[in-house]
Automatic annotation (TrEMBL):
Gene3D superfamilies: Aspartate Aminotransferase, domain 1, Type I PLP-dependent aspartate aminotransferase-like (Major domain)
Catalysis performed (reactions): 4-aminobutanoate + 2-oxoglutarate = succinate semialdehyde + L-glutamate; (S)-3-amino-2-methylpropanoate + 2-oxoglutarate = 2-methyl-3-oxopropanoate + L-glutamate
Organism phylogeny: Bacteria, Bacillati, Actinomycetota, Actinomycetes, Pseudonocardiales
UniProt-recorded name of the protein: (S)-3-amino-2-methylpropionate transaminase
Organism: Pseudonocardia oroxyli
This protein's record includes keyword Transmembrane helix: no
Similarity section: Belongs to the class-III pyridoxal-phosphate-dependent aminotransferase family.
Matches recorded under CDD domains: OAT_like
Length: 418
């Protein structure tokens, strides 16, 4: 009998048997409030009836169309439907399986299109675990450690993480943009930079919303230097932050390449890249794609997901109930133990733990996370020091379920800080 490799870690001991809406049920029949949503994946909740029906129908019709050999309808329909939610200038899309794969594809597209070698990412960013995506990832040591040398041509600039610097957001933005400008004439000469790759909310790196002023600063520099602005919306897309895409919090701003995955297909493996047709035309034909990309069942699930997101007003729900979650978590957390900061955008909310001497406190974060699981509330940790606990409920989460989660969190926090 083969054992599961110890290289995989598991945040909780839960052995899950089935999921329904915002709840998971374990093999002993115990109910868990799932405020992880499978790391922000089950946007429509577990096993939404419309997603289930669409997938079941597709399984019985065509499972694998293989788009580099033949084309299939669910993929074409999904490309068409995405046009309703994508910025109009990003009118060309293709599909892959995972966020990491899509990040790698975006980097290759940017390099082909610009004929430039360097990719600039930001400290604390998470872009995936495959070699190229891992090379852009600095959200924690475990992805990079023991894995050097990573893919060449990656450069990092500071992210305006105001809380950890002990600055105001304005000060952090000013510092990060100045530092970026310095790098564009030193470590990463602007004429050699193909792309800036940024998450609209720093995800695994601590749930720090990217200040709109910083995104605008990047857009302005990208335009000035002919650099492509790549929005990694793997975690922030599909309504998660209370706008359809996270970058829309910087009103009027459009990235050159948008990467989507996770919430796109409610749990089926699917990711996508969007850019203008003009930009996509600069890629080498046949240089992108893959055996399983744009799987027919995943595309059918994505179409149903989009229907549900639109019909059930899930973007608005993430905004309204996300604010309720932030308020609720803040009101029961602030001033308790080593809680230093509570922040969030839509249904991405985090509590950061900091020792009295200002150093990160991962011990309490991990204890609070574990205590929450003991109370039947599933959460995740994050942050470069693993000193944040994050809440990412499915987008269908109601006000009552938010309150249920806040009440459980309050108990967990008092257990962890007793
Ligand atoms: N980019 C971001 C912003 C992510 O949050 C993640 C996953 N946490 C990825 C890329 C990688 O996605 P995947 O795990 O599907 O490869």
């Amino acid at each position: 009998m083969a054992q599961l490799s110890p290289v995989l870690t598991q945040a909780t001991p839960v052995q899950v048997a089935r999921g329904e809406g915002v709840y998971l049920y374990d093999t002993e029949g115990r109910r868990h409030l799932d405020f992880t949503a499978g790391i922000g994946v089950v946007s429509t909740g577990h096993c939404h009836p419309k997603v289930v029906a669409a997938a079941q129908e597709q399984v019985a019709t065509l499972i694998h169309g293989q788009y580099t050999t033949v084309m299939h309808q669910p993929l074409l329909r999904l490309a068409e439907r995405l046009g309703e939610v994508l910025p109009p200038s990003l009118d060309s899309v293709f599909f892959l399986n995972s966020g990491s794969e899509a990040v790698e594809a975006a980097v290759r597209l940017a390099r082909h299109a610009t004929q430039r070698p360097l990719v600039l990412a930001f400290d604390g960013g998470f872009h995936g675990r495959t070699m190229g995506a891992a090379a852009l990832t600095t959200s924690g040591a475990k992805i990079r450690s023991g894995n050097n040398p990573m893919m060449g041509g990656t450069v990092f600039a500071p992210f305006p993480y105001a809380y950890r610097y002990g600055w105001t957001e304005e000060q952090a933005v000013e510092f990060a943009l100045k530092e970026l400008d310095r790098q564009l004439v030193s470590t990463a000469p602007a004429a050699d930079v193909a792309a800036f790759v940024i998450e609209p909310v720093l995800g695994e790196g601590g749930y720090v919303p990217t200040p709109p002023a910083f995104l605008r600063g990047l857009r302005e520099r990208a335009d000035r230097h002919g650099v492509l602005l790549v929005a990694d919306e793997v975690q922030t897309g599909y309504g998660r932050t209370g706008t359809f895409w996270g970058h829309q919090h910087a009103e009027g701003l459009t990235p050159d390449i948008l990467i989507t995955a996770k919430g796109l297909a409610s749990g089926f493996p699917l990711s996508g890249i969007a850019a203008s047709t003009e930009l996509m035309s600069k890629a080498r034909p046949g240089s992108q794609g893959g055996t399983y990309g744009g799987n027919a069942v995943a595309c059918a699930a994505a179409l149903a997901t989009l229907d549900v997101v639109q019909e059930e007003g899930l973007v608005d729900n993430a905004r309204v109930n996300g604010a309720r979650l932030l308020d609720g978590v803040a009101s029961v957390s602030k001033g308790v133990g080593t809680v230093g900061d509570v922040r969030g955008l839509g249904f991405m909310v985090a509590v950061e733990f900091t020792n009295p001497d200002g150093t990160p406190d991962p011990t309490t974060a991990v204890q609070a996370h574990k205590a929450a699981a003991d109370h039947g509330l599933l959460l995740l940790t994050c942050g470069p020091y693993n000193n944040c606990v994050r809440f990412i409920p499915p987008l269908i989460t109601t006000a009552e379920q938010v309150d249920e989660g806040v009440a459980l969190w309050s108990k967990a926090l008092s257990d962890a800080t007793a």
